[in-house]
Amino acid sequence: MGLYGTSCINREGHLSIGGVDVTTLADKYGTPLYIYDVKDIRNRAEEFKQAFENKKVNYQVAYASKAFSCIAMIELADELGLSLDVCSGGELYTALQAGFPMERVHFHGNNKTPDELEMALKEKIGCIVVDNFTELSWLMAMTESMKTEMNVLIRITPGVEAHTHEYISTGQEDSKFGFDLNSGQAKKAIKMIMGHSYLRLQGVHSHIGSQIFRAEGFEEAVKEIYLSLAQWQQELGYYPEVLNVGGGFGIRYGENDAPLPLHEYIDRMVEAAEKESAKLNMPLPEMWIEPGRALVGEAGTTLYRIGSRKDIPDLRTYLSVDGGMTDNIRPALYQAEYEAIVANKAAEEKTELVSIAGKCCESGDMLIWDLSLPPAVQGDLLAVSSTGAYGYSMANNYNRILRPAVVFVEDGEHRCVIERETFKDLVRHERSYRNSGSPEKASGSVKQI
Ligand SMILES: Cc1ncc(COP(=O)(O)O)c(C=O)c1O
Ligand SMILES: N[C@@H](CCCC[NH3+])C(=O)O
């Protein structure tokens, strides 16, 4: 496992994060446990902001809260001066509970419901990123009836295919997200918004995908957008105040991943926008980005307790841990690869090749194939690195496994920000079939066809 952020191996030969020995955390909070290195999140937010400061452009860095949303994380995002990207009523509600300033909230999603739109309008959030004509017509009607103005960005698909897993690539034309440029749909939507008295077209949004390592993808997206901007400037007299280039900045999961320094992505996209704006004699728009993974991914480590061991002679050794696809579905979903160490034997020589299995009743519940470890036994702690993004946020209760606790560590201190679920939580919304009284009668006639 690479050592990220403030992670190091302490004098006891244990993994330490944020100045805290993780064996202490396992004893106090139990396992599996998500551990977030707060200093690492701070540094990354600062790096993004500094990159824009150096380019002397107006900007917003919005944390894409889908990567990891909870009250404490949203409070931290606020403290770091970030804006916030939410993509559901639940994420917006979490932001409200965290007291996040609503004017810095941007609302995304390809199927926002009327209820979600109403919530966003009532809370007077910063902007809604309009994704399709259905949403647009709802928004037009709702802002009129509520007599409420709203800033909108129009999400477009620039036709750029990011070099990433196909499930997390979104910028291509054949995508469920946004308006495509070639068919004229984006232009039609812009006209509709420009002609509406309650909607204010603040700018254009594109997001080409996730876990991207090449700055060229962002540069190409910016160039593609400007081809359309030139047309819209000429035909509609429109140029945007804001250009939101989305998120997707890649991180290190293992030694094969080589992300660029964060400022290189920013430099390239800003330079491309500056060049294209100058060509069109257009003021440079404010540049917005919305990183999720790049802010929290490497800051997260999952700590598991090793349980059973199965040796198949001349074939493979399986070590099972007390979590798996319920707390990290990415290996099963995207064949994502992770690295790990034995946290309480972090300085010992690696002499064994093992595969790490989760505890779910699925053969596909494998966290890591072929991992070199020191001899590990039942009770040892396995630390899997870079699990801060899309780990907790995609966690689930398959096999009725409990979602783990989350702790923040910094400067030798730790605090629990999400408690471990309990068995009671699992049945909290359930009603007994036997004891719930008589069922309600269906109204209307039931026709046999
Ligand atoms: C619209 C949008 N913005 C931002 C993000 C954040 O992506 P990432 O976590 O890769 O930075 C996503 C997810 O891919 C997204 O769909
Ligand atoms: N959940 C994905 C990324 C999707 C991002 C949302 N558009 C992952 O774990 O990599």
Helices and strands, with pairings:
Elements: E1 8-9, E2 15-17, E3 20-21, H1 22-29, E4 33-37, H2 38-55, E5 59-64, H3 71-79, E6 83-86, H4 89-97, E7 105-107, H5 114-122, E8 127-130, H6 133-146, E9 150-157, E10 179-180, H7 185-194, E11 199-205, H8 215-236, E12 242-244, H9 262-280, E13 286-289, H10 293-296, E14 300-312, E15 316-321, H11 330-334, E16 340-342, E17 352-357, E18 366-373, E19 381-385, E20 405-410, E21 413-418, H12 423-426
Parallel strand pairs: 4-20, 5-6, 5-13, 6-7, 7-8, 8-9, 9-10, 9-11, 11-12, 12-13, 15-17
Antiparallel strand pairs: 1-2, 2-3, 4-14, 14-15, 14-19, 16-19, 17-18, 20-21
Helix pairs in contact: 2-9, 5-6, 8-9
Bound molecules: pyridoxal-5'-phosphate and lysine (LYS).
Molecular structure report:
- The chain is α/β, with parallel strands linked by helices and 449 residues long.
- It contains 12 helices and 21 strands.
- The chain has helices at 22-29, 38-55, 71-79, 89-97, 114-122, 133-146, 185-194, 215-236, 262-280, 293-296, 330-334, 423-426; strands at 8-9, 15-17, 20-21, 33-37, 59-64, 83-86, 105-107, 127-130, 150-157, 179-180, 199-205, 242-244, 286-289, 300-312, 316-321, 340-342, 352-357, 366-373, 381-385, 405-410, 413-418.
- The chain binds pyridoxal-5'-phosphate and lysine.
- Pyridoxal-5'-phosphate is lined by residues 64, 67, 85, 108, 207, 210, 246-249, 290-294, 389.
- Keywords: Amino-acid biosynthesis, Decarboxylase, Lyase, Lysine biosynthesis, Pyridoxal phosphate.
- Pfam families: Orn_Arg_deC_N, Orn_DAP_Arg_deC.
